[in-house]
From TrEMBL:
Species of origin: Kibdelosporangium philippinense
Highest taxon, organism lineage: Bacteria
Protein name: ABC transporter permease
Segments forming domain ABC3 transporter permease C-terminal: 250-361, 694-809
Record Pfam families: FtsX, MacB_PCD
Length: 817
């Protein structure tokens, strides 16, 4: 039995070629994801590990810096040989073209020391008036040993210095600094970390315990060198896992599309071999043997496709690492990635083929006497009922969560409702195909030619087959349209939020690095520009909000009450002198109402308690809490300025004056409201484009599924095509009929994907952003491109099957039984 099935598989390689393509592409995506994430983690783990630090005492996030007195106390711990302070501060390296390098400058500067932090690769250690540069930053800035360069410092200061050397940095959990000053006093900062070296034979754990007794645990963290190494490896693994989970989501979509292709292929293969299966049953084959033989056949295909997919995935992973243009990347192909590739490929194929295997086992021996070699149509009642239940449940869940101020649970319910509707439509796909395509067929029959009539009728001949083929297209295209709708809605809301908050005539001053604080001198310098009558600031900061005993992260801005920033109020008052204004969605998330008190923790030792007096129509990416500038401590007023807004009677003159004032400051960008909106939208659209490309893998697999369906359908209709040719049907007619069938299937799948995608995108923006369900923005450009793309896919997918059908030998086809 098994030999007979495998022999048949070898004899009809064309039947399974597209199935192998679907398996190969899906597995390749999974393996490439694993290779890239494993390589990133292995690269971090493979970096030189410092062995010169016994204990590290480091400040917590936003905590006050360590002082010389703190270092001296730690140095006095029994068993400590040396104690060295490590400083990090603002240092903006200026490129040869006068702009800043891309690395964030806020922690890019440090003081040079003789520790194992630095490994010189060329030149020498810097002295007073000199700097050493990290190799990556030096390459980007086009600076070499001996070059003169300018470094921007905090508060608008800058120094002209000489590059004495280049280095490779060994971090202990901190971002790699790009600039090391020969004189660390240039940074004007305390110590971010104090590194302790133990004497020979001293107990490191005892030193760490003593250090913990000397510092405040809320402001300082103490760890041994071994702990820091373990933490670095754990962060590498966590980063790899996060990257892997993100990309595997896209891989899962590709595999889902592949499952539809594989299931459809096996359903058609089993139908075509009805008489063969019946003969096997007639000569003694049991149902179990037939079912297992089909599953083994699927397993063999899965194994072959997985082998090809693993090889392709490793190649794609390598290409991805090369394309990243990162130095020192270590290629890692773990046994796990290969095993996962095989497991996914074989299991997905066998799961997709299981229904067909069961159907094959139900073939009665008497079917060998039939000449049509087909199964009786299966009832769609169960599938239709499940689909209606899923759609109804989803619609009810969405209807119950139509309010804008949704809690976290209600947001999950709304998303669940959208997913239920989507699954319900997948169940209803055969019924929908019949309901939509048959009227289209009748319409085209009256106005179209013979090829059109034949193509449309063939597309609805088997609604299950059409549904399976279009479902693969629908999944990929619906995800593209869903995220396009979400992205279009977010960019529209972002644009509206900025327009409602900032005057159109305002000149905007910000950092070229997103959400990086400007120098403390910038606001006063803007105010001193001739023609400026009003200058105020946004002080965007990540804080923690506590309400009713529950604490969660949020964002805040301290603003001037009569400043240019005016949040769009939807309830209460907008006068921050009376209390805080919070985004209506954020208020719903933390369960707060007008009049409630909240505590905002600015850092581990500083917090403010205020009353909610207004709700604004905010969104993620913009401040969710607005408070009066006078309510925050003095140290936050100038040091946390992220954006400055200025206006005057002549807005054009104001902008020119500000540009002149900061013409030698590459750490300051002068724009207006429209440019800010454009930049925000472009950066978001870049992310969406990447997502479209990743979801495109599913559409590619679905396109191969269309080719496979048409090719197998042509083989199934060999006798029919022969009769058509015998009664006068020309080769061009046959080709046009097959091509029309393909275009109808792809166009229907595209339309269904667009409808489902736009609808799910509307639910996503409602659940995620808290906006009205009906306030979504339709991505007309993506929809138009999708429709045109589906028609092109339909034409291209039909090329080979149509050519094969048109070349059918008439006499041989008529003789086929």
């Amino acid at each position: 039995m098994l030999r007979a099935m495998l022999r048949d598989l070898r004899a009809h390689k064309g039947r399974v070629a597209m199935t192998l393509v679907a398996i190969t592409l899906g597995v390749a995506f999974v393996v490439a994801t694993w290779v890239v994430s494993d390589s990133a983690a292995e690269t971090i783990r493979g970096e030189d590990v410092r062995g010169d630090v016994s204990v590290s005492v480091q400040i917590a996030d936003e905590a006050p810096e360590l002082t010389v007195a703190d270092k001296d106390r730690l140095a006095s711990i029994p068993g400590v040989a040396t104690a060295s302070g490590v400083s990090f501060g603002y240092a903006g390296l200026i490129r040869a073209d006068g702009k800043l390098v891309s690395a964030r400058p806020d922690k890019a500067g440090t003081g040079w020391d003789s520790s194992a932090r630095f490994a010189l690769t060329s030149g020498r250690a810097p002295g007073p008036g000199e700097v050493a540069l990290a190799e990556a930053q030096a390459k980007e800035a086009n600076r070499a040993v001996g070059d003169k360069t300018r470094i921007l410092l905090s508060d608008g200061r800058s120094v002209d210095t000489t590059v004495s050397g280049l280095y490779w940095y060994r971090p202990l959990g901190e971002p790699v600094p790009g600039v090391a000053f020969g004189d660390s006093a240039v940074l004007r900062s305390g110590f971010t970390r104090v590194e302790l070296t133990a004497r020979q034979g001293a107990n490191v754990d005892a030193i760490a315990a003593s250090a913990r007794d000397l510092v405040d645990p809320d402001l300082r963290t103490v760890a041994t060198g071994a702990d820091l190494t373990a933490q670095a490896e754990a962060r590498a693994d966590e980063s790899a896992q996060s990257q892997r989970e993100t990309l595997l989501g896209f891989a899962a979509v590709s595999l889902l599309a592949g499952m539809f292709v594989i299931a459809n292929t096996f359903a058609m293969l089993v139908t075509q071999r009805t008489r063969q299966l019946a003969l096997l049953r007639a000569i003694g084959g049991t149902r179990r043997q037939v079912r297992n033989a089909v599953l083994v056949e699927a397993g063999v295909l899965g194994w072959i496709g997985s082998t090809l997919g693993v090889a392709l995935g490793i190649g794609l992973g390598l290409l991805g690492l090369v394309a990243s243009d990162s130095d020192g990347i270590t290629l890692s192909v773990s046994p796990t990635s290969i095993l996962v590739g095989y497991a996914v490929g074989v299991l997905v194929t066998m799961i997709a083929a299981y229904t067909s295997a069961r159907r094959a086992a139900e073939v009665a021996p008497v079917a060998a006497l039939r000449s049509d070699g087909s199964f009786a149509p299966r009832s769609l009642v169960t599938r239709t009922v499940l689909g209606l239940v899923a759609v109804t449940s989803g619609v009810i869940a969405i209807a119950l969560t139509l309010r804008n101020d949704l809690s976290t649970t209600e947001r999950v319910v709304a998303m669940g409702g959208g997913i239920a509707v989507w699954l319900g439509i997948l169940f209803l796909a055969p019924v929908l195909a019949t309901a939509v395509l048959r009227p289209v067929g009748r319409l085209l029959s009256r106005h179209g030619g013979p090829a059109t009539r034949l193509g449309v009728r063939n597309s609805v001949r088997d609604s299950r087959r059409t549904a399976a083929t279009t479902s693969a297209l629908m999944v990929g295209l619906a995800l593209v349209c869903a995220f396009a709708t979400l992205g279009s809605s977010i960019t529209s809301m972002l644009s509206s939020s900025i327009q409602a908050t900032v005057p159109a005539t305002a000149t905007i001053v910000s950092s070229p690095v997103q959400r990086l604080a400007l120098g403390s001198d910038v606001l006063e310098k803007v105010r001193s520009v001739p023609g400026v009558t009003n200058a105020s600031a946004d002080r965007y900061a990540f804080v923690k909000v506590t309400h009713n005993g529950s604490t969660s992260p949020t964002t805040m801005s301290a603003i001037e009450p009569d400043g240019l920033v005016k949040p769009e109020i939807v309830a209460g008052t907008g006068d921050v002198r009376a209390g805080a204004i919070v985004g209506e969605n954020e208020a719903a998330m933390i369960g707060a109402r007008l009049g409630d008190q909240v505590t905002l923790a600015l850092d581990p030792v500083t917090s403010i308690t205020t009353t909610i007096i207004g709700l604004h129509k905010g969104m993620e990416g913009r401040p969710l809490f607005y408070v009066d500038l006078t309510t925050v401590p003095e140290k936050f007023r100038d040091s946390s300025v992220t954006t400055v807004y200025a206006s005057g009677p002549d807005s054009a003159a104001v902008r020119v004056g500000i540009e002149q004032a900061f013409r030698d400051r590459p750490d300051v960008v002068v724009t207006d409201r429209d440019e800010v909106i454009k930049e925000a939208i472009e950066s978001f659209e870049l992310l969406l484009s990447l997502m479209y490309a990743l979801f495109g893998a599913a559409i590619v697999i679905a396109a191969f599924g269309v080719v496979n369906t048409l090719a197998l359908s042509v083989m199934e209709r060999t006798r029919e095509i022969g009769v058509l040719r015998a009664v006068g049907g020309s080769q061009p007619l046959v080709r046009r009929a097959i091509r029309m069938e393909s275009v109808v299937i792809c166009a229907y799948g595209g339309l269904l994907g667009i409808v489902v995608g736009v609808g799910f995108g509307a639910v996503m923006q409602h659940a995620m952003m808290g906006q009205s369900l009906w306030d979504f923005s339709v991505p007309y450009g993506i929809i138009g491109a999708a429709l045109v793309g589906m028609i092109i896919v339909g034409v291209l997918a039909a090329l080979w099957p149509a050519r094969r059908a048109s070349r059918t030998d008439v006499l041989a086809a008529i003789a086929t039984t």
